[in-house]
Design goal:
CATH architecture of the largest domain: 3-Layer(aba) Sandwich
Number of helices: 20
Number of domains: 3
Strand content: 5-15%
Structural class: alpha/beta
Shape: flat
CATH topology of the largest domain: Rossmann fold
Strand order of the largest sheet: 7-6-5-11-12
CATH class of the largest domain: Alpha Beta
Helix content: 40-55%
Radius of gyration: 29 Å
Length: 543
RNA sequence: GCCCCCGUAGCUCAGUCCGGAUCAGAGCAGCGGACUUCUAUUCCGAAGGUCGGAGGUUCGAAUCCUCCCGGGGGCGCCA
């Protein structure tokens, strides 16, 4: 049982004893920033003062009195401070209980949640046009979307990862025309694609191949390959064209008509998106009877709502303006717009050798995502893309991320795991197996380093839940960096085994280290980063 | 002109959604220390701040509201 539940129940009962009515619906227990304020604290006396008809400080004193008379489990002192905060001091036993929880749950069970049980979520991400390779900027949305999916899974949701393929329209045609032009030795059409890959691919294209079909397959295969190299695997690849063939686009249109959500003007068909928060109406069918990108997109989202309870789209910052119109269209079709959440990732700029590299598929100047992965490796790429809030712009420095020296937090975290595995190997070599947990005296864990680790482990379930709710995987990154820092401090100050280390203490520390390993594995897995068994400096060689 | 994101230590960023406690955190850079040890890719210390600015709400604001300044992105019958 989480220590906060113990405290909450005691507080609720104490408030009842004091005749507070109604009891507060939520009692918040926080860890004070200042350790002098105790291990846990509540502001309930401040928030319930009115209902109690007393001033906060007085209510706090009364609460403390009741609680001191029969202290809740682990509690050694109850104090009132400031305007009426009630502060608890606890015996270390509450932290030892955390360790029992962690190792009992294991990496499959610790920091899992059930908030999503029975809810299906479809995370749509990347969804790049099949007109070329993915570039470094796509990497952010790719790693973010995949990590988000992992978070939803850990919180109990049934998750589908989907890639929407824009396999029709003007861009596809330009791409095909560009390929054909290069293959045929003519000029690339205006607005066409000029990237280096166009020349490569045109050279690969067999005689007589349809440039559109062949190019589409070529691009898709390329994109899929780099995503897989990042350990990102989609459950479904959804074709825009397929909705034309299946009549889904026509159905969406007739739905919109029957909802009176469209009208004709200037020979075009418009969506009344301004009725639902967009700043203007949008064209669905152009006056030349071609669809805009929007109509198939509406059909696509309508389709997704048949397949999942919640939709999450990951879009780049350049698409933020489309959020309102898509919400508007979904509302017109009778969906709750809050069930379509759009996460916007801000731009990534690349540096290499101190020079900024511009990303633009059309001018042909770009760094392919595949190059990034080649240069820095999967783990460093993923960790780095997930280092910052996606609300912040990111400068990805290839030289820095590729370097396996200081400055690069991914190695710091992975090294913590490698050290743990090393300890476990050494212990095994010394014939020291962990004895069953219930035979180990965890009360021997009282060093500040040990307690800091246990506090960090206790935070992981909250961090996972918050990261999922706020769609912010970087919070997991922040947490795991802090856990690694605590571990390295522990490693330095507290030997697990060896001269002068009592057998009982060794056992307790072996279990502590196992708990930390579980925390690292859980967090790294949420980020899609591996937890290596060993790491050696290159110049040292292996062994 | 309108919309979105950002502005916190020299640099790069957490913290802001949901306001709390006269220490606002981390990494890196720089300075000074620690290996006869389970991996020094590590650890410890000192230093470093008008939280972009101004008002407002509040017992209390980095956090909420308004305006302003600066940086980035977006505003098509392109996708």
């Amino acid at each position: 049982m989480d220590v906060r539940d113990i405290l909450t129940e005691s507080l609720r009962s104490a408030l009842g004893d004091l005749g507070v009515d109604p009891l507060p619906t939520g009692i918040t227990i926080e860890r004070p920033a200042n350790p002098e304020h105790g291990d846990w604290s509540t502001n309930v006396a401040l928030t319930s003062a009115k209902a109690a008809g007393r001033n906060p400080r007085e209510l706090g004193m009364a609460l403390a009195g009741v609680l001191e008379a029969s202290p809740p489990m682990h509690v050694t002192a109850v104090e009132v401070a400031g305007p009426g905060f009630v502060n608890f001091r606890l015996a270390n036993s509450w932290l030892h209980d955390v360790l029992v929880d962690v190792v009992s749950a294991g990496s499959d069970g610790w920091a899992t949640h059930t908030v999503g049980t029975g809810l299906s979520v479809m995370v749509e991400f990347v969804s790049a046009n099949p007109t070329g390779p993915l570039h470094a900027g796509h990497g952010r949305g790719a790693c973010y979307g995949d990590s988000l999916a992992r978070l939803y899974q850990r919180c109990g949701h049934e998750v589908t990862r989907e890639f929407y393929i824009n396999d029709r329209g003007a861009q596809m045609q330009l791409f095909a025309d560009s390929l054909a032009a290069v293959a045929g030795g003519t000029d690339i059409p205006e607005g066409g694609y000029h990237g280096h890959y166009i020349r490569e691919w045109a050279a690969e294209m067999p005689e007589g191949a349809d440039p559109l079909e062949w190019g589409y397959e070529r691009a898709l295969a390329d994109q899929r390959r780099v995503l897989e190299s990042l350990d990102i695997h989609f459950d479904s690849w959804f074709s825009e064209r397929s909705m034309i063939d299946s009549g889904a686009v026509e159905e969406a249109m007739s739905d919109l008509r029957s909802q009176d959500a469209v009208y004709e003007d200037d020979g075009a068909i418009w969506l009344r998106s301004s009725d639902h928060g967009d700043d203007k109406d949008r064209v669905l069918v152009k006056s030349d009877t071609e669809f805009t990108y929007l109509l198939p997109d509406v059909a696509y989202h309508r389709d997704k709502f048949q397949r999942a309870d919640r939709l999450v789209n990951v879009w780049g910052a350049d698409h933020h303006g489309y959020v309102a119109r898509m919400h508007s269209a979904m509302q017109a079709l009778g969906h709750d717009p809050s069930e379509l959440q759009v996460a916007i990732t801000q731009m990534v700029s690349l540096q290499r050798g101190g020079e900024e590299v511009r990303l633009s598929k059309r001018t042909g100047e770009m760094v392919e995502l595949a190059e990034v992965v080649d240069e820095v490796g999967t783990d460093a790429a993923r960790f780095t893309y997930l280092l910052l809030s996606v609300d912040s712009q990111q400068t990805f420095d290839l030289d820095l991320v590729a370097s396996q020296v200081n400055e690069n937090p991914v190695f710091y975290v992975q090294y913590a795991h490698a050290r743990i595995d090393s300890i476990v190997r050494r212990a095994a070599e010394a014939g020291m197996e962990r004895t069953p947990l219930d035979e180990v005296d965890l009360s021997l864990l009282g060093h500040q380093r040990e307690l800091a680790l246990l506090r960090a482990l206790h935070e992981l379930p909250d961090t996972v839940l918050r990261a999922c709710r706020e769609r912010a995987p970087h919070q997991v990154t922040t947490w795991v960096r802090e856990l690694a820092a605590s571990f390295h401090g522990f490693y330095h100050d507290c030997r697990v085994m060896g001269d002068g280390i009592d057998e009982g203490l060794s056992q307790a520390r072996l279990w502590l280290v196992e708990g930390v390993r579980i925390g690292l594995v859980v967090a790294l897995d949420l980020l899609g980063v591996t937890a290596p068994e060993e790491m050696w400096r290159e110049e040292d060689g292996v062994g």
